[in-house]
User: Fold this.
Amino acid sequence: MKQPKLVLIEGLPGFGKSTAAQLVYEILTEMNTGTQLVLEGNLDHPADYEGVACLTQAEYDELSRICGGNSGEELSAHTTCQDNNYLVGYRKIINAYGPLLPKEWMDRLTRKDVYELPLAQHRKLITARWRQFTESALTGPDTYVFDCCFIQNPVTMGMIRHDAAEEYMISYIQELEAIIKPLNPLLIVIEQDDLELAFRKAVRERPMEWSEGFIQYYTSQGYGLTQDTGA
Assistant:
């Protein structure tokens, strides 16, 4: 069997994706396979955008004008230009400056987060990102292990946030599948017999902010609103 250059770990929240990803990483490392483990939330994710805002040139120029000083230098240092889009790694800037950043500046960036954009624009950016990653991974020596992001993130954005049709979501995932096919990917889906038990365990073990944010995200937009019966 040809060695995969990409291992994808998927499953519902609380199912143990991160634990499984860590285990796969350790097994590959013990086999002397050069491996990179990329967990959910990684600000340097090579195939996704975590804490990144997408601005037009006009929006970026205006932001640069109101920044100035060290903040302006940080903005430039964490910005890349792609197809007339200015991609700003604003979470990294927050980590560097935190409360010293102007509120107006941060509000502008968070509103333009890649995961806050219209679905069509978001999908275009994400598929382009996966293409870039695939091209890079093909020429490099390492195997990558990704925690979610292949199915979970597109479905969360498409179905949960925008209530996209099932056919649209299938086509989105199939597009990503076609992009990564040259990497001979291995998909591992973590399943649990008792969904409620697994989820409640995750709620107990994680900070309250996680469960509150999860509930708010899943019930206040897109799919959640269409399923609200008013009970």
